[in-house]
Amino acid sequence: MNDGHRNDSGSAPTLDRGTPDRILQRLDWQVIRRLDGLLQGDYRSLFYGFGVDFADLREYQPEDDIRYIDWNVTARLNTPYVRQYVEDREITAWFLLDLSPSMDFGGVENIKRAVLIDFVATIARLLTRHGNRVGAIFYGSRIERTIPARGGRIQVLRLVNDLLKQPHLPGAPFTNLALLLEGGQHAIKKRSLVFIVSDFISAPGWDRPLRLLNHRHEVMAVRLWDPREVELPDIGPMIMEDAETGEQLYVDTHDKKFRARFNQAARQREAELDAAFKRAGVDVLSLSTEEDLVRAIVRFAALRRQRRR
Q1: Is 57 within the bounds of a domain?
Q2: 237 in a domain, yes or no?
Q3: What residues have CB less than 8 Å from 243, skipping those under 6 apart?
Q4: Are residues 167 and 42 in the same domain?
Q5: Do 69 and 138 share a domain, yes or no?
Q6: Burial level of 186, CB count in 10 A (0-12/13-18/19+)?
Q7: In b/e form, how buried is each residue of 213-248, taking b as 16+ CB within 10 angstroms?
Q8: Phi, psi (5° rounding) for residue 93?
Q9: Which pLDDT tens digit goes with each residue over 163-191?
Q10: N or C: at which end does the chain have fewer Cβ atoms within 10 angstroms?
């Protein structure tokens, strides 16, 4: 059974986060100002590799990123070659957003969808205030909407507004993230910075289109999760509902063996996700609904800075 349950009340929550303008003001004060101080303007550690155009080919060196290997040339010459890029002055970033039913799981304060909105608004604001462009693709049970990449604060407000208005699905066919990733491959023409924001609770088979997307773009996976999806609290009898299918199951959380099985299944899912991300070669930000967004982004920037050394 999928562990992407609904919130504690057992029904899809309403998302009352205020107006887009007030959300952006809150993030400017509570998140972006703190990031400015902690990162000290070093956003390259977070956005490294974006906005580049192909320049030349050269032989592979041991310290090169294997994602830039040109496999066609390598096969012809029987020697590994990598593509070299030159930086473009303008960054184009895309958000591939999972808005399927399991994203409505969480506590009273924060569901995964609310964290998604804060993350997207923050990163979009950081990018657009330096003259860059951002766009988005929304996925519910299919590709729901594509917002063309544009710049400016108005574009960020539009993203937030459309996210707030995006309907909460009461139940849908099981999420298939491959559709979102393949939609990104078709829609994003120029090499871009791509954020995939999802809980990655999905039908299998999405790792291959993720790998293909990463061959062409600079891709980062942002995996949203809630602590109760990993460790079940001991609160007695309860009804668990699968947000993806609507299936309900009566369980007794006093049962230590049941909680142990639940935890083991969660650890196995974590291991499978880690393996899929490694196969695709993408960096991953694991973001909990209870984690401070600033600390998570700073931690992610440090990870990327370390990997690029």
Answers
A1: yes
A2: yes
A3: 2, 4, 5, 6, 12, 101, 102, 104, 105, 171
A4: yes
A5: no
A6: exposed
A7: bbebbbbbbbbbbbebbbebeeeeeeebbbbbeeee
A8: -120, 145
A9: 999 887 776 567 899 999 999 999 998 88
A10: C
Contact 223, 273 (CB under 8 A): yes
Within this chain, do residues 118 and 240 fall inside the same structural domain, yes or no?
Answer: yes
Question: Which tens digit of pLDDT belongs to each residue from 49-107?
Answer: 444 455 567 777 776 667 678 788 788 888 888 776 544 457 899 999 999 988 988 77
Residues 106 and 155 in one domain: yes
Number of domains in the chain: 2
- For residues 225 and 261, membership in a common domain is answered with yes
Structure tokens that stand for 139 in this block: 């996925």
Amino acid at 283: D
Residue 181: strand, helix, or coil: helix
Question: Does residue 302 lie within any of the structural domains?
Answer: yes
N-to-C CA span, the chain: 41
What local confidence, expressed as pLDDT, does residue 157 receive?
97
Print the domain residue range for 63: 53-85
Amino acid at 163: L
User: What is the predicted pLDDT for the residue at 220?
Assistant: 93
120 phi, psi to nearest 5 deg: -60, -45
Residues 29 and 172 grouped into a single domain: yes
Q: Is residue 15 part of a domain?
A: no
Query: Is 0.85 topped by the overall pTM?
Result: no
Q: What tens digit of pLDDT does each residue of 119-174 get?
A: 999 999 999 988 899 999 999 889 999 999 999 999 999 999 999 998 877 765 67
Identify whether residues 108 and 227 lie together within a single domain.
yes
Helix (H) or strand (E) holding 161, with range, is: helix 153-165
CB 229 within 8 A of CB 263: no
Shared-domain flag, residues 179 and 206: yes
